[in-house]
Amino acid sequence: MAAGLELLYTSVAQSLSAPQDALLCFIHWEMVVHGYQCLGTGDKPGENDRKSEKLPAGWNSNKELYSLRYRSQDGTSHILLKSIMVENTMILNAMDPRLEQVVDVTLKVADYVNSDCLDSFEKVYKNSAELSALLLSRIISPFTGSKEKPRAMRESPQSHDPLRIPPYRPHTNPQPNWPDPLGPFAAGGTDLDPLGGRGGGGMIVDPLRSGFPRAGFNPSSGIPGHLPPGAVPPGARFDPFGPMSSSRPGPDPDHLPPPGYDDMFM
């Protein structure tokens, strides 16, 4: 419960004769806590208006209709607060006359005030936290929120998303730092667990990261007689389509010809 409410309640305890009086006392203190001061009663300014945290004289002379005027401490917001009693329910209406902005909330008095304990501040209120939150969201925030400067949205680090395409960053290392598979024959492992982040083993076997020892090879530098330099972007996966050197690897592909290969009469 907000500090200072007990002092306010005690100061008006002699004039509290209905549970809605106690409820309006709570509402008034919530206005004060959030930067408003009361100017007086009625719909229009009076000669005796002055800003105060206290409830003005005659504030509860009418048990069916309460009307109080407030102004924020910086003078930028004016609120006309009216409370209308309909049986055991209070209809709370707040309006800024200059902006023609109107908000309201309906409160069941018995939900927040023990009508049999008006002479005891320790027992008179119940569900105080719920009432405070309701008044803040429905009555106070619509007027104070427009004055608050929007906070800059801080960019939070993105969580790991296995489906997110990483931004392109040119590789400076001719041999990209790819993690090797768990073994040279681990092809297909990642396809069984595509979101597991195993780091390799897809169904496409990349000769450049197959797990076998390999000499340093940079396809972006070109392949003599096959590809000019720069034809393969740095760091791109490259599937060789022919021998990696100018010399043909032995043995000769035709070293096992079919029977009668050289017989012109066959």
Outline type: rod-shaped
Class inferred from helices and paired strands:
alpha+beta
Oligomer: single chain
Distance between the termini: 108 Å
The low-confidence parts are: 146-158
Strand order of the largest sheet: 1-2-3-4-5
Strands, total number: 5
Would you state the CATH class of the domain at 5-143? Alpha Beta
* Rg computed from alpha carbons, rounded to a whole number of angstroms: 41 Å
Mean pLDDT: 76
- The CATH architecture term of the domain at 5-143 is 3-Layer(aba) Sandwich
Could you estimate the helical fraction of the residues in percent? 10-25%
Family: Belongs to the proteasome inhibitor PI31 family.
GO molecular function: endopeptidase inhibitor activity; proteasome binding
Main location: cytoplasm
Function: Plays an important role in control of proteasome function. Inhibits the hydrolysis of protein and peptide substrates by the 20S proteasome. Also inhibits the activation of the proteasome by the proteasome regulatory proteins PA700 and PA28.
